[in-house]
Amino acid sequence: MTAPSNEQIGQALEVSHAAVSRYRSGDRFPELDVMARIANLLDWSMDDQYKARQAGTYANEFSQRMAASPALGTLVEDAAPDQQASTG
Predict the structure, then answer these.
(1) Do 72 and 1 meet the contact criterion of CB atoms below 8 Å apart?
(2) Could you read off the pLDDT of 12-37 as tens digits, one per residue?
(3) Nearest 5 degrees, angle CA 18-CA 60-CA 24?
(4) What gap in Å lies between CA 56 and CA 23, rounded to an integer?
């Protein structure tokens, strides 16, 4: 399974791919409305996200959860035919 791109994750979270990159690097934390979407998409409660932010582990946990998320794996599989059509 291929990991979802920041662009695919951004589309799912309704944010830019640059915002996803900043969340992954720890340069920025999501707003509350985005945290709610992350909670739904990654099965990661807002409370646990806040605790990770306080502990300084948010970026690492966000990346790990993205890699392990079945919902995000579906994004990649759904996008694959489109990507093949545009490169073919």
Answers:
(1) no
(2) 999 999 999 999 999 999 999 999 99
(3) 0
(4) 12
- The tokens describing 19, both together, are 């915002």
Sketch the domain layout of the chain as residue ranges. Answer: 6-75
Question: Which two structure tokens, joined as six digits, stand for 23?
Answer: 């969340």
Half-sphere exposure of 65 (CA within 13 A, CB side): 21
Does pTM top 0.85 for this prediction? no
Quick check: 76 and 1 in contact, CB under 8 A?
A: yes
d(CA 18, CA 37): 17
pLDDT of amino acid 33: 97
